[in-house]
Amino acid sequence: MVNVHEAKTHFSRLIDAAHAGETIVVAKGGKPWARLVPLEQRASRRVPGVLAGRFTLPSPAVLLEALPEEELAGFEQPLL
């Protein structure tokens, strides 16, 4: 916990500490007043084609074939 005056004096050091994962509580008049926390990391954006050439799918005709009866029956049974 740091007081407002110390936070103003060492702001650059405090934001570096927050960026490194530390949570800093700023006090005003000896009472917790604000919290300086690191930002959550943004999820990386998807990159189209990242798996290109890693595997091949069967032809659409094969994918659209009906499943065998015993395999279809397995979908009707409870998991537990």
Please, could you describe this protein's structure?
The protein is of the alpha+beta class. The protein has a domain at 2-36. 34% of the residues lie in helices and 16% in strands. The protein contains 4 helices and 3 strands, in the order βααββαα. It has helices spanning 4-9, 11-19, 60-63, 69-76; strands at 2-3, 24-28, 31-36. Strands 1-2-3 form a 3-stranded mixed sheet.
Q: What descriptive keywords fit this protein?
A:
34% helix, 4 helices, 80 residues, 3-stranded mixed beta sheet, 3 strands, elongated, alpha+beta
Work out the number of β strands: 3
Total of DSSP H or I helical runs spanning 4+ residues: 4
Series of H and E elements: EHHEEHH
Helix content: 25-40%
Gyration radius, in Å:
28 Å
Strand percent estimate:
15-25%
